[in-house]
Every structure is written in structure tokens, then in C-alpha cells.
Amino acid sequence: MIGTKQAAAILGLRPGTLTRAVWEGRVQPPAKGPGGAYIWTDADLRRAAWALLGRDLDDTVSARMENGQ
After folding, report:
1. Are 1 and 40 in contact (CB under 8 A)?
2. CA dist., res. 12 & res. 63, Å (int)
3. How confident is the model over 26-52, as a mean pLDDT?
4. What is the pLDDT of residue 36?
5. For the chain, what is the total number of helices (H) and then of strands (E)?
6. If pLDDT is split at 50, 70 and 90, which confidence band does 62 have?
7. Exposure of 52 in the CB half-sphere (CA atoms within 13 A)
8. Is 12 exposed, middle or buried (CB count within 10 Å of its CB: 0-12, 13-18, 19+)?
9. Where are the domains of the chain?
10. Closest Cα to residue 11, out of 60, 47, 51, 63?
11. Are 10 and 20 in contact (CB under 8 A)?
12. Which end of the chain is more exposed for a tag (fewer CB within 10 A), N or C?
């Protein structure tokens, strides 16, 4: 489980972009931790990748690695 900053980095997005997508209902919100911050699981990341990027998380990570990101 990771925070929004790390989740956004994996997806190749800015943290604000990912948070805004949750607020706008484009991404199913992950569970929140005791402090109220989102806690992203692998399943949450996979849903977000499909919803925002139109591809599987593995394809997203592979594409970013090929581009040197």
C-alpha cells in the first residue's frame, strides 16, 4: 500500500491530477488511512490505470520504463 504521491508517480501523473480524478468520480476512491490520506493498493492502481490511461498498469509501467521515465 502506498500514498497518492507514489501512486501518481507509478502512473506517470501528478499527484493533484490523480486526486482530482478521484474527486470528480473518474477513479474509484481507495481506502483512507487513519490520518485521512488515501492508501493505494495494487488493485486501486490497476483500476486507475484503466480509467485514466486506458491501459493495464503493467503496460503503463513498461511504457514508462521504455521511455526512460
Report:
1. yes
2. 10
3. 95
4. 94
5. 4, 2
6. low
7. 26
8. middle
9. 4-66
10. 60
11. no
12. C
The distance from CA 30 to its chain's CA centroid, rounded to whole angstroms, is 10
- For residue 57, the one-letter residue type is L
* 34 touches 24 (CB < 8 A): no
- For residue 63, the number of C-alpha atoms closer than 13 Å in the C-beta half-sphere is 12
Within a 10 A sphere around the Cβ of 55, how many other Cβ atoms? 12
What is the pLDDT confidence band of residue 34, given thresholds at 50, 70 and 90? very high
Q: Whole-model pTM?
A: 0.81
Instruction: Give the per-residue pLDDT at 58.
Output: 78
User: What class has domain 4-66?
Assistant: mainly alpha
